[in-house]
Amino acid sequence: LSDRNLTWSFAGSVDKPSRVEMLQTLSAIEPNLMKLLPTWKQPQPEEADEYIKSLENTKFIPCPRGQNYETYRLYEALEAGCIPICIGEPNNEHDCYNKLIGDKAILIVNDWSAAKSLIQQLNNNPQALNQIQDNLVKFWTNHKANITAHMLAALERISIV
User: Residues 143, 145, 149, 151: is their CA dihedral positive or negative?
Assistant: First the structure.
């Protein structure tokens, strides 16, 4: 992970005030890549390829909430081996990730200023950065294998009946 060129990247809409705050706070950390849209839209295939390439070259992905707390951006980050960062919510909405993915698997901070500090701290420590990524990749790979095994077992039970 420490060999990737982009410290962080974000591709998405800026139609929510929290995203503007996020981008203003994190923009001081370079190098970064921001692909901003006025509103959400379905990407074209060439944009999707470009997005995947940017993820593969990025260390951290800020994952602001969308229409609800859970966002596809987090799963894209995990698939690409990036470190996703989310903001905790006062009503504990962020606990959905503990239930869906696993306890403390995702970096969750109090606000985007704390995210900025954490990114800067970890980016200056390549060994810690690589260890976090290694842990996340192992966890995500095992998590997907467990989900697959549960689904296959459920399908097997259905086909027997």
Answer: positive
